[in-house]
Amino acid sequence: MSERTLIVAADAGGRLVRLLRDIITTPGTRLSWSTPGEWMAHDCALMLRRHSAGRYKAEASHLEALAGAGTWFLSQSLEELLALDGYIRLNPARFRPAPGRRAGSPRARILDALNAAITQKRQGKL
Questions:
Q1: Within 13 A of 61's CA, how many CA atoms are on the CB side?
Q2: What percent of the chain has pLDDT over 70?
Q3: How many domains does the chain have?
Q4: Is residue 10 part of a domain?
Q5: Is 13 part of a structural domain of the chain?
Q6: Which of 18, 40, 95, 98 supports an S-S bond with 107, CB 3.0-4.6 Å?
Q7: Rounded CA gap, 61 and 109, in Å?
């Protein structure tokens, strides 16, 4: 579930700046995030929970929410995208699907969207 929220904040010069952010809520949880850093922080918090069926369901739902974020990746900064890419690639045991199930898996869809967004940012198209 995604919603747009207007955030008003002060920049370094003290001027008010309006930011329109997509806030995504992981289905079946109370986890809301709008940046890759927030998504990773929630993922770490889920990982620290006691082992249970609820934890595994929340982890799968959290990963699926990121995979379904679509154009959200294009609105993030290059640094945040690179951090998320590293987080997913450096934790293969948590995100790698079972053998033979890679096609269409949440990890594959996330990495495809990340690669596309990173390439566009590096080429200056965004």
A1: 18
A2: 83
A3: 1
A4: no
A5: no
A6: 95
A7: 14
